[in-house]
Amino acid sequence: MHKEVVSAEWLNNNQSNKNLIILDASPKKTISGKVSTVADLCIPNARIFDIKGTFSNQESNFPNTVPSAAQFEKACQSLGIYKDSKIVVYDNLGIYTSPRAWWLFKTMGHENISVLDGGLPEWVKAGFETVKKSTVIQEFPKGNFKSKINEEFVIEYETVIENTVSNNFKIVDARSTGRFSGTADEPRKHLKSGSIPNSINIPSSSLLENGKFKSIEDLREIFTKKTTKKDKLVFSCGSGITACIVMLASEIAFKKSRYLYDGSWTEYAELQNLNK
Prior knowledge:
By secondary structure, the protein is an alpha/beta fold. It has helices spanning 8-13, 69-78, 98-107, 119-125, 157-166, 177-181, 216-226, 243-253, 264-274, and strands spanning 5-6, 20-24, 41-42, 47-48, 86-90, 113-116, 131-132, 154-155, 170-173, 200-201, 208-209, 212-213, 233-236, 259-261.
């Protein structure tokens, strides 16, 4: 298995590692309203990674915006995370928000992080121990985590606009085919559906099977049909969450590319409408 992803069995066998920190990055629900069937459960000793709160820029006009390096560092230290921590992150929907947490740590300079393949549902299915989420302790000795943001990974709106002419990179859109093609509504009712010029569509759902990543061979085939290893890939979606699923799948099987259009379609569509 690729080092960016670990199995439930691996995590269960390595819980005694003193440098291991387990993060629960579960959302309350998806943008479409889906709620996890195991939302009230947690892996023992997991720490809550508030992906839409503490680990997003709350002053941004757009959802899930990457926080400043200082904000991220302070929040990680509060969770007792250290510079040498081995982090495993999961969510309670299988593979949904956990890759976003993975990307945030990579962007902030921390390489030693993996995603739990299949997330909490796979952990429960394997019969491993869980606790009630309401009983989880959330006060820890302060860690010494340090952020060093790689700003190159965070692609801005202006760069995306320039690229519609220059074609310096290929935008890989993780939304459904219907939303990408403009035939299905956006979950944010004020937004039209459609896509950024010259972008391609690899729906995040097409890369998963039973809540886990498909085989490396299947993932590689999906990417090879749409792009080449020579292309610079920039990932996008509705608001920067599911794009990270496709990014992680690419790193597992096809090409390492950690560039994310953080504002994604929400920002693009809103600003295009304002600039008409």
